[in-house]
Design brief:
Elements (H helix, E strand, L loop, with lengths): L1 H9 L5 H45 L21 H5 L2 H12 L14 H16 L15 E2 L2 H12 L29 H18 L11 E2 L5 E10 L2 E16 L3 E12 L6 E7 L2 E8 L7 E4 L4 E3 L2 E9 L3 E2 L9 E15 L8 H6 L10 H17 L5 H16 L4 H13 L2 H4 E2 L14 E3 L2 H12 L6 H9 L5 H13 L4 H11 L20 H20 L6 H4 L2 E4 L1 H7 L10 E4 L12 H6 L8 H12 L14 H4 L8 H8 L6 H12 L13 E2 L2 E2 L4 E2 L5 E2 L2 H9 L2 H17 L8 H13 L4 H9 L2 H4 E3 L6
Antiparallel strand pairs: 1-13, 2-12, 3-4, 4-10, 4-12, 5-8, 5-9, 5-12, 6-7, 6-10, 11-12, 14-21, 15-16, 17-18, 19-20
Helix pairs in contact: 2-5, 4-5, 7-11, 9-10, 9-11, 10-11, 13-14, 15-28, 21-24, 26-27, 26-28, 27-28
Length: 795
């Protein structure tokens, strides 16, 4: 209370200078104390390494991990200081994982550390590798400029231009890093992809913009009902045969006055010395007499040399055969000269834009030259607005000047203004500012001493939209960025909820959930058709759809993420329900269904997950246990040691051993027990589900045993009891989910310095009832999302 009174007294005008000095001194002292505390912590860690940790590593590790013949090629004698360990942080993170699960040193080693010694080693490494001071400025990391991946490219084209076209389907596949295909470090730009970008830009511009040239106008075919005949003319479907002199009359209905082209597809059967003569009249006036030499096998299109000027209304077109000829003594196929007309078309009005232009054309071209508006003026207006949306930020006149000049040059060379805009759009669509998400464009002018910077509001809008929609920002996000409001917590919270309910969030389900849960891999799986005859393509799609609908429900209804583990409901259509043994669901539509909680709950018991974690011919407790450790517990096991035999090989002479017995034998192999002691019980707990997720109580004649005991002593007798145990580990699940979603959101792998942000996100969203939107909002408010560390490319 006294401090508050002192500050209030000092805040009076006569004490203002003194107050500033006091606060300046306080900040200096606080920073000095913080720096000093950090130095003390590091010095203490160094001494502890020399006195405690280094002797333990020498005692228990160096016998196997020294020199050129070190076990698994891992030589540890070179790590003699704390600094040498931190230089190879990633390698030691993997080593610590093995120490943690007691696979290093292996149980068959001559000397094993005591529990106290192992705890001391792990505690020291935890502090050294992850001990970050979260009280001061925290490194938000730096994301490599990110190329749009295939999904993002397609979605961005859809929202930028409004065309129903997915050119990225023909692009090379995107590489995956840290489990996702939107990671900047792996999204390279090979020459083949650049060629695809150029081709796609041309196709997109032609689909989006009506070129306003003769070739861009669609042909209108005169319908059969508009024709009548006179003389020796036979009307058939899509053709008319002139077997002697005769006339075919048709009606052209012109809805807009202007210039029109006329085209007649025709052929002849030859006889005599002349070709068939086809006379064309319009409203009784002769237009042209064509010499038709094409054969019926290869008809030719005959077009008038000049467009016709036609007023609005109906016009009578007459096509006549003038020179019938018959020679009964001629060659068999050249005795009778006849004329054949296949279709009659017209197009126009040429040089005048149609009144029914597609919406995406008028959305882009908001200015056309004429009435005092020059080509340059309109080109700048059109291309500025388009470029700002394509580049996802404001642009300067200098930036778009080359594009405007390109449009001008195209028009001056004899093309239409619309063709010029097509070329301008192509230039924008192959620009790095469209193809890549480049941040920090204007940072060069800022102080180079400030290495941690807030990203701009437009960059926040872009990060948010590609995070939740895999696409560009919409008008609302652009407007909020323009107003400078996107870094406000309340604004971000409102936008997150809006965006999660928007239909475009379907991309988040497909791209985040599809990769987090490995649902994309389901497409490539083919269970043994001899054992699982019921499995087919439709059922596979239903399995994936169930998990997507389940994820979407939790997301859009803002449910607790703990329901991913324990939900007593799912989504089924009739076909999937019958597969599960439920005859109450009818129809193709997916609907919410209550589960029998004695058998199933949450994600783990859904057929998609159970199939993904099985082998083609049988279940795989190892894969299922590994999936649970990675996805639910957030404790992925390390990679298996080299030269470990397959499960069946480890069974030795016990050829008819059950899967549980084979796994028990496998755990006796040196180096395997530590991981399998954790994975196997988790996987065996779900043995009541076969390799495609059906419930079973027996395998052949053997009764299924789904009981088990975890390394911590907790035991269970059924899948549901195991799920209840996993639910108790919800904090670990929430942290794991936070790490995965943050990785996807910022497009880079999680680093040790992200610990502070992950701790804060997890703590805050779990305190808010584990709500899905709270998790997304906390990520959007985090330092890694709203800030960036300047890198070498800024200089």
């Amino acid at each position: 209370m006294r401090m508050i009174e002192t500050i209030f007294r000092l805040s009076q005008p006569k004490h203002l200078v003194r107050m500033l000095c006091v606060f300046g001194s306080l900040l200096f002292v606080m920073n000095a104390v913080s720096a000093n505390a950090s130095d003390i912590r590091v010095e203490k860690s160094k001494k502890q390494f020399e006195s405690q940790i280094k002797p333990l590593l020498t005692k228990y590790c160096l016998d196997c991990h020294t020199g050129e013949e070190a076990e698994a090629g891992l030589s540890l004698e070179k790590y003699t200081t704390r600094s040498s360990i931190l230089k190879h942080r990633e390698a030691w993170e993997k080593i610590v994982q093995r120490i943690q699960i007691q696979s290093m040193p292996p149980k068959d080693a001559g000397a094993l550390p005591t529990d106290a010694e192992r705890e001391a080693i792990l505690e020291w490494f935890d502090e050294a590798l992850y001990g970050i001071d979260c009280s001061g400025d925290v490194n938000p990391g730096r994301v490599t400029i990110r190329r749009l991946n295939r999904n993002e490219y397609n979605n961005t084209i859809r929202d930028l231009l409004g065309v129903d076209f997915k050119p990225a389907q023909n692009f090379p596949s995107d590489d995956v890093g840290y489990g996702f295909d939107n990671i900047g470090d792996v999204l390279s730009l090979p020459p083949l992809l650049m060629e695809k970008y150029l081709d796609a830009a041309e196709q997109i511009s032609e689909k989006a913009i009506y070129a306003n040239t003769a070739d861009s106008f669609p042909w209108t075919e005169i319908p059969e009902k508009n024709f009548s005949k006179k003389g020796a003319v036979t009307l058939r479907k899509r053709s008319a045969g002139f077997h002697s002199r005769g006339t075919l009359t048709g009606i052209i209905n012109v809805k807009e006055p202007g210039k029109y082209e006329l085209q007649i597809e025709a052929a002849q059967t030859p006889s005599g010395t002349e070709a068939a003569k086809m006379e064309v009249k319009l409203n009784g006036k002769l237009l042209k007499t064509f010499q038709v030499e094409a054969s019926r096998d290869d008809p030719e299109k005959y077009t008038l040399p000049k467009p016709l000027s036609l007023p609005k209304g109906k016009h009578t077109l007459a096509i006549s055969f003038l020179n019938d000829f018959y020679d009964p003594k001629g060659p068999p196929r050249k005795r009778d000269r006849n004329l054949y007309v296949y279709n009659v078309k017209y197009r126009g009005p040429l040089g005048k834009l149609p009144t029914n232009l597609p919406a995406f054309h008028t959305k882009i071209i908001t200015c056309t030259p004429g009435a005092g508006r020059s080509v340059r003026y309109c080109a700048e207006r059109v291309m500025r607005r388009f470029s700002e949306r394509a580049f996802r930020r404001p642009v300067s006149r200098e930036e778009i000047r080359p594009i405007v000049e390109l449009v001008e040059a195209t028009v001056k060379s004899g093309n239409t203004f619309e063709q010029g805009i097509q070329v301008g759009i192509q230039a924008v669509l192959v620009s790095p500012h469209f193809l890549f998400r480049i941040e920090g464009i204007r940072d060069v002018a800022r102080s180079r001493s400030n290495q941690i910077q807030n990203i701009s509001h437009y960059e926040i809008a872009t990060r948010l939209s590609y995070f939740l929609w895999s696409s560009m920002p919409d008008d609302k996000l652009f407007e909020l960025a323009k107003q400078g409001r996107l870094n406000q917590p309340r604004t971000l919270q409102v936008q997150v909820k809006r965006m999660l309910k928007d239909p475009k969030s379907e991309a988040f389900i497909k791209n985040f959930a599809g990769q987090w849960l490995n649902l994309r891999n389901l497409e490539d799986l083919s269970p043994d058709p001899r054992k699982f005859r019921v499995f087919n393509g439709k059922l596979k799609n239903d399995m994936r759809r169930e998990t997507e609908e389940f994820f979407a429900y939790i997301m859009r209804e803002d449910r607790s993420v703990i329901e991913f583990i324990n939900a007593d409901y799912t989504f089924m259509n009739e076909r999937l329900a019958k597969f599960y043994g439920n005859d109450q669901v009818k129809g193709e539509a997916f609907q919410k269904v209550a589960l029998d909680k004695t058998k199933r709950a949450g994600l783990i018991t859904q057929a998609s997950i159970l199939t993904l974690t099985s082998n083609p011919g049988r279940t795989s407790p190892v894969k299922r246990g590994k999936w649970i450790m990675e996805t639910i517990l957030g404790t992925p096991p390390p990679a298996p040691p080299p030269n470990v035999p397959e499960l069946e090989e480890s069974a030795g002479s016990k050829k008819n051993a059950t899967l549980r017995e084979q796994l028990a034998l496998h755990r006796k192999i040196p180096g395997c027990a530590a991981c399998h002691d954790q994975m196997d019980p988790l996987g065996l707990g779900f043995e009541n589900f076969d390799a495609i997720g059906r419930w079973r109580t027996k395998e052949g004649r053997t009764k299924i045993d789904s009981s088990g005991q975890l390394p911590n002593g907790q035991s269970f007798k059924s899948p549901i009891e195991l799920i209840a145990i996993l639910e108790q580990q919800k904090q670990g699940f929430c942290r794991s989910l936070t790490e995965k979603m943050l990785t996807y959101a910022i497009g880079r792998g999680i680093e040790y310095y992200d610990k502070c942000a992950i701790d804060e996100i997890t703590t805050n969203f779990t305190a808010k009832g584990y709500r899905f939107s709270a998790l997304v909002t906390e990520i959007a408010l985090s330092d890694p999302f709203l800030k960036r560390q300047r890198g070498s490319h800024d200089d």
